[in-house]
Design a protein that fits this description.
Blueprint: H1 11-17, H2 23-43, H3 52-67, E1 78-83, E2 86-91, H4 103-108
Antiparallel strand pairs: 1-2
Helix pairs in contact: 1-3, 2-3
Length: 126
């Protein structure tokens, strides 16, 4: 059996950053927080060096991005509507409703930072 782990945030953390959740949204958020935590652990090897507050805020941001995608718009990358001389156009930032880390979030978690190193190309001879 897989080891149990504690997500980096709770649905209450999501509520503090977004809005009060319904009971169904709380259940969804709880499952997504577990998934987001695992994604961070799988993707960013240095996650354990990040402050708890950073882990919580990034985990919540991932879940909020996922939960803001409505079922009726799932998969839509661009939508346009026209009524007479008025028109609107929308491009959705997360059309598939994926849980993902942004480049900035990965950087906050220590992934992708530049490192200096030295490589001896001479073969070590005199």
């Amino acid at each position: 059996m897989a080891d149990e782990f504690t997500p980096f945030a709770t649905y209450r953390d999501v509520e503090r950053r977004w809005h009060a959740l319904t009971e169904a949204e709380r259940e969804t958020a709880t499952a997504l927080l577990e998934d987001a935590t695992q994604i961070i652990m799988d993707t960013c090897p240095k996650w354990s060096q990040a402050p708890e507050r950073t882990l919580a805020s990034i985990t919540c941001a991932m879940v909020i991005r996922k939960m803001t995608v409505s079922e009726e718009r799932l998969g839509v990358t661009n939508a346009q509507q026209t009524a007479g001389s008025f028109s609107e156009s929308f491009t959705y930032s997360n059309p598939m409703g994926d849980l993902y880390l942004t480049r900035a979030e990965k950087a906050r978690l220590g992934r992708g930072r530049a490192r200096a190193f030295h490589l001896d190309m001479s073969g070590g001879g005199p």
